[in-house]
Write a structure and sequence with these properties.
2 copies of one chain form a homodimer. Chain A is mainly α and 122 residues long. Helices cover 57% and strands 11% of the residues of chain A. Chain A has 5 helices and 3 strands, in the order H-H-E-H-H-E-E-H. Chain A has a 3-stranded antiparallel beta sheet. In chain A, a hairpin with a 2-residue loop joins strand 2 and strand 3. The longest helix of chain A has 26 residues. The interface between A and B is large, with 48 and 49 residues. Chain A binds a DNA duplex (30 and 30 nucleotides) through helix 4.
Chain lengths: 122, 122
Amino acid sequence: MSDSPPVPHPLPEPLIELVAQRFRVLGEPMRIKLLDRLREGEATVSELQRSLGASQQNVSKHLGILHAAGMVSRSKHGNHTRYAIGDPAIFDLCDQVCGGVRRQLQELDTILQGDQPAAASA
Amino acid sequence: MSDSPPVPHPLPEPLIELVAQRFRVLGEPMRIKLLDRLREGEATVSELQRSLGASQQNVSKHLGILHAAGMVSRSKHGNHTRYAIGDPAIFDLCDQVCGGVRRQLQELDTILQGDQPAAASA
DNA sequence: CAACTGCACAACTGTTTGCTTGTGCTAGCT
DNA sequence: AGCTAGCACAAGCAAACAGTTGTGCAGTTG
């Protein structure tokens, strides 16, 4: 279906909502951790729970949110539920954000170092 | 500029926080709108206010948040404050998210319309 | 100088949301 | 069958947050 020139400029209202919601899903440390952990490969809830040191209910809840957002996929194997990355594209997102963060830190660093050499303490 | 091998895999805790915070800044419709509006070019608070139909205080507040996150730049011109995109890279982010949203909508569409699983199309 | 405009900061309020606690359900084990 | 492990759902609580109201301040205008 069409190569779709992705972004219409004046972003239509409903799309804005969807985009914001998607960003918000990623705006939670625990969920970032889960995705980062799933980068190693599939994992069950209890495995993730142990990896992150969080409660089973909390992990399950966040996984539910990620799953509802289509970012992870679910599959039942006997008594275990295995989760996996549903849309690998999110890693590009995270990478970009990481890049942005890094740039800002460098700017800060430059400012701190190049401006007032006298005061040097974090 | 350092080429910086982008992402360490087990994301260090503090970085996770920063990344999540950055996503959360973008997880607000009003802020998306502001950025989308600034895509046309610089604008003052009152201009943005008129464009989006929001209160001056609210616009100013969100601009403050975007500015604190380094996503917009501020410059005073007489009695006006002009804001501009601070990091054009965020548009890549938005584009990617838009793409993801679109993909999901297509999947939903496919599911609703046909039992014919349209095999891989990008 | 006085009045007005443009903007930011602070306090308040209602809502959202993350985490915990409690619980039910299914699958495997003895 | 009874028991335990693994997981998801629901309710309650506390913290975070968006939007409003109120206000102070700098710059412009008459």
